[in-house]
Amino acid sequence: MTAALCPGSFDPPTNGHIDVIERCLRVFDRVVVAVVRNPSKEPMFSVEDRVDMIRKSFGERVEVESFDGLLVDFAKAVGVDVIVKGLRAVGDFDYELQMAQMNRSLAGVETVFMPTNPEWSYLSSSLVREVARLGGEYRGLVPEHVAAALEERLG
Ligand code: PNS
Question: Model pTM?
Answer without folding.
Answer: 0.97
